[in-house]
UniProtKB/TrEMBL annotation:
Positions with a binding annotation for ATP: 7-17
Listed name of the protein: 7-cyano-7-deazaguanine synthase
Record field: catalytic activity: 7-carboxy-7-carbaguanine + NH4(+) + 2 ATP = 7-cyano-7-carbaguanine + 2 AMP + 2 diphosphate + 2 H(+)
Cofactor info, note text: Binds 1 zinc ion per subunit.
Pfam family, one: QueC
Keyword set, alphabetical order: ATP-binding, Ligase, Metal-binding, Nucleotide-binding, Queuosine biosynthesis, Zinc
Length: 222
């Protein structure tokens, strides 16, 4: 059996990929060059894919910078992070997960895959609306009606195994699974050294502290 895995090159998607790999399916990662602020995460995704020796790694080019509206796709300053989010941050990319899942669904149909894995989780709930469990459930409903596969009784299941895990639990699970966390990046700035102060870096570092491990990637101020 095959499964498509959304792989950004970050912590969550890499741990999610380790879960898919251990389930025994033939994993097909899909990554996106979407006009993001930097390409370091895409380079990391390629390294993670190589680590798992996948037979196929699909990289989709799509220009979300033409839409803008985010610090990741427009000339908007990346804010320093906080461990707790109260509002949708400016790093939210409008409709990104909806678009990415749609591409993944098309790939799953072509590859006759039975599942799509996405590493959204409860930590992002209060920040990004397209990381909520409700969104995944709604997309599953669309999947069940929008494809040739569904008409032919070949249901494609959306798996979000990290949905209700804390960052600390995700880190611990990744280490348990032998996921190559040293090959990942979470920094919104995209430098050779992670900044350590953007929202994503703050959440990542908090997760490693909670799990009782040291983050293996280098930081500017660590």
């Amino acid at each position: 059996m095959k499964a498509v895995v959304l792989l950004s090159g970050g912590l969550d998607s890499t741990v999610c990929m380790s879960i898919a790999q251990q389930s025994g399916v033939d994993i097909i990662p899909i990554s996106f060059d979407y006009g993001q602020r930097h390409h370091r995460e895409l380079a990391c995704a390629k390294q993670v894919a190589d680590f798992y020796q996948v037979k196929k790694h699909v990289v989709i080019e799509t220009n979300m910078r033409a839409i803008g509206g985010s610090a990741l796709t427009a000339d908007i300053e990346v804010p320093q992070g906080q461990e707790e989010r109260e509002h949708v941050p400016v790093t939210y990319v409008p409709a990104r997960n909806l678009i990415f899942l749609s591409y993944a669904l098309g790939l799953a149909e072509v590859e006759n895959a039975v599942k799509i894995y996405i590493g959204v989780n409860a930590v992002d709930y209060s920040g990004y609306p397209d990381c909520r469990a409700e969104f995944i459930e709604k997309f599953q409903s669309i999947t069940d009606y929008a494809t040739k596969a569904s008409v032919e009784n070949h249901r494609i299941i959306i798996e979000n195994p990290l949905q209700y895990l804390t960052k600390g639990e995700i880190v611990a699970l990744g280490i348990k699974n032998g996921a190559p966390l040293h090959l990942t990046t979470s920094c919104y700035q995209g430098g050779a050294l992670a900044c350590g102060v953007c929202d994503s870096c703050v959440l990542r570092l908090k997760g490693f502290r909670e799990a009782g491990f040291t983050d293996p990637i280098p930081y500017q101020d660590q």
